[in-house]
Amino acid sequence: MYARKKWLDQVQQYARRFTSVINTDGSRTDTPVTGEVIQAGTPQSSTNFNQIEEALQHHSIAFDLLWVTNQAELRAQEARITAAEARLTAHSI
Q1: Nearest Cα to 5, choosing from 75, 55, 39?
Q2: What is the pTM of this model?
Q3: Do 12 and 48 have their domain in common?
Q4: CA nearest 48: which of 7, 93, 91, 1?
């Protein structure tokens, strides 16, 4: 069974704030200034992503099984209808 994870964004005191330093070669280095972290975000880790992948795979397999079962039932029903129609046609002649 899939255990839903509530994903959280990281909330920081300063959103999109940077300090810029001009390097000796004329390039610029920007360093994020986050300030205080108000809410820690959910880590983007292989553990969290693999849990999603596993759940998608399980749901895909379950759907495939449902689809195949449904198609088999439809074919069996069509065969029964065809047989019943043949019997009706034979009796009405």
Answers
A1: 55
A2: 0.55
A3: no
A4: 7
